Amino acid sequence: MFDKNSRYYTIKEATITGKDTGIIVYKKRRFIPDGENMTILLEHTITQGERLDNITAFYLGDPTQFWRLCDSNLILNPEELTKDIGRRIKVAMPGL
């Protein structure tokens, strides 16, 4: 259902059977991991015009991993991380 690099890939699936729709497969709820327990690689200072995909491509080697920055900074909306120039964000070690 999701690419192996997706934050949802490891989330367990569930099913529900609808009267008219048959079996529907869906992902169970994903909880944001505790950023305090992550191994922080470094802190990055946001500059004008930066994008999370470029930051994660540089530090983690994969632009689709931008959601890891959200997790390590306890942010739900990715845009919040880059809206304030000069903000320092944590770049954490990818989990297994």
What does this structure look like?
With 96 residues, the chain is α+β, with helices and mostly antiparallel strands. It is built from 3 helices and 4 strands; from the N terminus they run βββαααβ. The protein has helices at residues 52-60, 66-72, 79-82, and strands at 13-18, 22-27, 40-45, 88-92. A two-stranded antiparallel sheet has the order 1-2. A hairpin with a 3-residue loop joins β1 (13-18) and β2. The two termini are 19 Å apart.
Mean pLDDT over all positions: 86
> What share of the residues lie within helices?
10-25%
Distance between the termini: 19 Å
Number of helices: 3
| Sheet with the most strands, sense and barrel status | 2 strands, antiparallel
**Rg from C-alpha positions?**
16 Å
Cα shape: elongated
Order of helices and strands: EEEHHHE
**Count of extended strands:** 4
User: How large is the share of residues in beta strands?
Assistant: 15-25%
Strand order across the biggest sheet? 1-2
Q: List low-confidence stretches.
A: none
Helix-strand makeup class = alpha+beta
Record the SSE blueprint.
Layout lengths: L12 E6 L3 E6 L12 E6 L6 H9 L5 H7 L6 H4 L5 E5 L4
